[in-house]
Specification:
mainly alpha
Length: 146
């Protein structure tokens, strides 16, 4: 996610143009939101910082990518040029596992004593909240291109 965010950050104009081509309104806003979110999510997951929230945000991004682009290309990722949804689905499932299982013993969450409070059912609910936010973003800012 960090590498993806850096790539988007280095070319905000190109990213914004791409968002417009795939049906997003407020394409520049979405470009900044995407780049910033990907950098923050990747960093938080590496550090084990607010892991369930970071995992929920990862799932949200994957749901937006699935719904707006990848679902039209079928399952397998090698269906070029659009790429199928197997990769985004895999990342979303891994994010669910992280949200529910928690960050593990070597994490900021564990060091500050919040890891146990944010995993399990709570992590699952946080994950579901991320998906709900993704649905809101799609409802407000995306329409299938003609």
């Amino acid at each position: 996610m960090i590498a993806h965010g850096i790539n988007h950050w280095r070319s905000i104009d190109g990213t914004a143009s791409w968002f417009g081509k795939v049906g997003f309104k407020a394409r520049r806003f979405n470009a900044w939101l995407s780049a910033g979110s990907e950098l923050a999510i990747g960093s938080a997951l590496v550090l084990g910082l607010l892991t369930s929230a970071a995992a929920a945000a990862l799932a949200a991004i994957m749901f937006v990518a699935f719904w707006s682009i990848h679902r039209f290309a079928g399952f397998f990722v090698f269906h070029r040029p659009d790429e199928g949804y197997e990769y985004v689905l895999t990342l979303a499932i891994v994010a669910l596992a992280l949200a529910v299982a928690g960050p593990g013993s070597v994490s900021v969450d564990t060091a500050v004593g919040i890891a146990e409070m944010l995993n399990g059912w709570v992590g699952g609910f946080i994950y579901a909240g991320g998906l709900a936010l993704a649905g809101g973003q799609l409802a407000l800012l995306w329409r299938k291109p003609k």
